[in-house]
Amino acid sequence: DLSGTRSSLSILRSLHSVTVRLSTMQGLAPSSKLSLTVVVVGLLLGMAGAAHGLTRVVSSSPDEPCMNMTLYYHDILYNGNNTANATTAAATKPTALATTYWKNSTYFGALMVFNDPMTVGKALPLAGEEPAARAQGFYFYDKQESLTSWFGFSIVFNSTAHKGTLNLVGADLMGDATRDFSVVGGTGDFFMARGVTTIRTDAIEGLYYFRLQMDIKLYECYL
């Protein structure tokens, strides 16, 4: 709308003004310039939230997130026969190095692309039922000696409870009982959110299905 456009233009003008001033600060020590830049960026982020009619909330304690939820991530790998149900598929053929390590089940170098359902409970959605969200992105196996992977994906919400996205990245060190992904941003109900998602392996069924419990805690929210 017009008010949102005016707010965005105001932020751009402010950013231009700050950039010009920073470029003329010849007398300041590098550490002072860096500190001032950090402060300015923080102010501009706050202005961006204000342009959307939101208030920035930052938690002061790891035990008191500004928003939290638990979802279950269901990964169903395509096995050649489950076209109707599969939500994940290998996007690359094994490299020569990957083939060398394939024998000890580390799958080094393999890349998987997924569009996985995420649910509030542990059960998969019933036929025709929409999940609470979908996880859309990829993971690849990145270690020769043990089974580990790296994830980059968005949780896409489109329900009566939430609309928007959360963007997550991180290493899945599968030998650990719990692992953490970084929440690096969001949109919609999760505009510019940041936080940590703790994951646990909740179930494994052969080579073609696993379920992760994801405890999402946001420590920077715009409400």
Automatic annotation (TrEMBL):
UniProt keywords, alphabetically:
Apoplast, Secreted
Pfam families linked: Dirigent
GO CC aspect terms: apoplast
List the transmembrane segments. none
Similarity comment: Belongs to the plant dirigent protein family.
| Lineage: superkingdom | Eukaryota
Cellular compartment(s): Secreted, Extracellular space, Apoplast
Put simply, this protein is called: Dirigent protein
- Subunit structure as annotated in this protein's UniProt entry: Homodimer.
Name the job this protein performs: Dirigent proteins impart stereoselectivity on the phenoxy radical-coupling reaction, yielding optically active lignans from two molecules of coniferyl alcohol in the biosynthesis of lignans, flavonolignans, and alkaloids and thus plays a central role in plant secondary metabolism.
Where's it mainly located? secreted
GO BP terms in the entry: phenylpropanoid biosynthetic process
